[in-house]
Give the backbone structure.
Amino acid sequence: MKAAMTRTRTMMTHPLAALRAALPALFALGLGSLIACGTAVAPQELMDARTAYAEAAKGPAADLAPAQLDTAKTSLDAAQKSFDSDGPSQKTKDLAYVAERRAEIAAAEGGREKAERKRAAADKDFKSTQIEGLEKTKEQLEAERRAREAANQDVNKTKAELATEKAARAEAEKRAAAAMASLQEIAKVKEEARGVVITLSGSVLFATGKSDLLPIAQEKLNQVAKALVGQGFKAIVVQGYTDSRGNATDNQTLSLKRAQSVRDYLTTQSIPPEKITAEGEGASRPVAPNDTADGRAENRRVEIVVTPDKG
Amino acid sequence: MNARTWVYACFCGVLLLACGGAAVPQDSLTAAQADVKGAEVGGAADNPKAALHLKLAKDQIDEAQKQIKDGDNEAAARTLDRAQADAELALSLSKEAKAQGDASDASEEVGKLRKEISK
């Protein structure tokens, strides 16, 4: 009892002695904890941090945000170190939480940098496309200008051609008018519904009862041909007429032969044969009474009916 | 080192722990609050994922302030580290989303222009 009291007093006198006695137990407890840590399962936060880092390292952050990825690695190492020394403590969990966020930041920064590069490339593309568009517009404008110029040239050419044609037509009309005027000196010229009718007296062209052209007739027909060629025409019909004396059949035959003689001669004077025909009309359609010599002379005639080229 | 020295060392360690040891993490608190403000200005609230981390950052700042009040400054410092990481992530996510949107718009504009030119 005395010894125990002495021991108690001694302990009270020396409180550190108690701690000294407890040291082996404290040591054993610490060692136990360390062993426990060595086999402890990593907390969810640390596993998440490892996964986040691995994903970030696989993504664009590896090339585009290396500094942030490095920071994430440092954070992950700190969390791992804490786990190695303290096990799944709150400190380890906090460090792992931060490490996971750092990895996510690195991934986001990598993604941002990638998007910014994509945008820069698109901006560049936009500018070059704009230039391309401007070039195209320029080319189109140039082509339009050239087309306008060509059209203007065509218009000018057409105008010149028209002017030339107009002048040529005026000249031709002038010539035709002159020819017609001269024709009117040797024959009667009249415009009727069937066409322009040129009437030549039979006595000027043929001897009585004959169908051969007199020499003077040829001169007159030359003038007629010249006028016809100058004026232009679609078709010509040469119609022979007689007076009413004699046999109707003979008159018909004679009128046709005379018409054919005139037709044949005109074809030798540049009148196309396919455009000119001959008809014998006999004593039909008299232009004067047949009971006087003058009237019969008027009825013995050749009419050249010209269908004009226009209108 | 003899046994007495060991005992003194342990005693001093216990005293330090009892006094709370760590100082109030005022700098970390200021930094975390600044990061939250930066994320808000950066438009983190407009992006769902960024907004989530912004909220986590704010909640953790509140929690850290409570821990400081309770004298647990060491835990508060770690909570503020978490808050700061969330705030920074919120800003990064917001920037990434904006950059992706801009890139998409720019590509679309190029497409429209090309279509216009090819007419």
The two ends of chain B are 92 Å apart (CA to CA). Helices of chain B lie at 3-18, 26-41, 48-69, 73-118. Residues 10-20 of chain B have pLDDT under 50 and may be disordered.
